[in-house]
């Protein structure tokens, strides 16, 4: 009886010890399954104002719509992605997150993708994600419908005002972090973006508006390449540095197609050209050189190249890189301690884990002075 009692006590203690450890982690496709003690139900209020309940941290994610996948990679969630849109698999120069994570293209397709397409519920369900992040489907009813049809939690994200990105973007990053178990990383990304925005603004804060040079950016890419008439009001790189963007006087926000003659009346001191449409500008120059030669920016050799950042919604990293380069050109004294190339690689490294300026230089010519007609 004593031996049996001792054996019973031994087995009981062993069982208690195992229970106290909370179980062991097992693995599945897409990552490590957290222990039972780590998993918890959480209610998230997304950018469509919806309350979404899901078990966090998740292990398998998909991102639907322009910009959604980019935000997941910023939060270091690329390894959790189990499928991507077909449009992400195509060669798309300038999508920095796809340059940093090329293996994402090997994942199964979750539908066509694109700004005007409807999510493919069957394809989404087939890759068995724990959550569906959506970035343009911010309509509450549509998000609810997608969640009901797939049976998978749908969380709506947003970049907010594209001229500043701002609080909606920061909320989106923090929501992703809390769902994928990367809260600290998301907080660090938000802090880094705010730090750069503050630094850019501070450098030119004391310059009176009347003393600032007039600037214009042409050939801005938006759903394809465009010529010099394509520009942007409240252009983020200019807005960050407080530059005097002549297009802002229109009172508009975002992409604007102007009459070319308007550019002559504005006659900016500095002319920047988006590399995505530069070829169209050179073609137009050959047809009408007198128009371009009438601009003081050309007369004074002040025409510069910028890297396109509007590609499946803004590549925020490149937008900041452009801001530091434009600042160096327009406000050389205020940006004298900045090397735009090194700063660009710092930004890419922090947000995406890889210095990407060399790739941007290869694809778009990088930061340099342009000589139209030569």
The percent of residues in helical segments reads: 40-55%
Unreliable residue runs:
1-37
CATH class of the largest domain: Alpha Beta
Order of helices and strands: HEEEEEHHHHEHEHHEEHEEHEHHHEHHH
Radius of gyration: 25 Å
CATH fold group of the largest domain: Rossmann fold
Question: What is the residue-averaged pLDDT?
Answer: 89
Write out the CATH superfamily name of the largest domain.
Nitrogenase molybdenum iron protein domain
* Head-to-tail CA distance between termini: 102 Å
Number of individual domains: 2
Shape: elongated
InterPro entries: ABC_Transporter_SBP, ABC_transptr_periplasmic_BD
Signal peptide: 1-19
Family: Belongs to the bacterial solute-binding protein 8 family.
Pfam families: Peripla_BP_2
Set down the secondary structure blueprint.
Elements: H1 2-20, E1 27-28, E2 31-32, E3 40-45, E4 51-56, E5 61-64, H2 68-74, H3 86-89, H4 96-100, H5 121-126, E6 131-134, H6 140-150, E7 154-156, H7 166-180, H8 183-203, E8 214-218, E9 230-233, H9 236-240, E10 244-245, E11 254-257, H10 260-266, E12 270-274, H11 278-287, H12 289-293, H13 296-299, E13 303-306, H14 316-330, H15 340-352, H16 357-364
Parallel strand pairs: 5-6, 6-7, 8-10, 8-12, 12-13
Antiparallel strand pairs: 1-2, 3-4, 9-11
Helix pairs in contact: 7-8, 14-15
Family: Belongs to the bacterial solute-binding protein 8 family.
Signal peptide: 1-19
Keywords: Signal
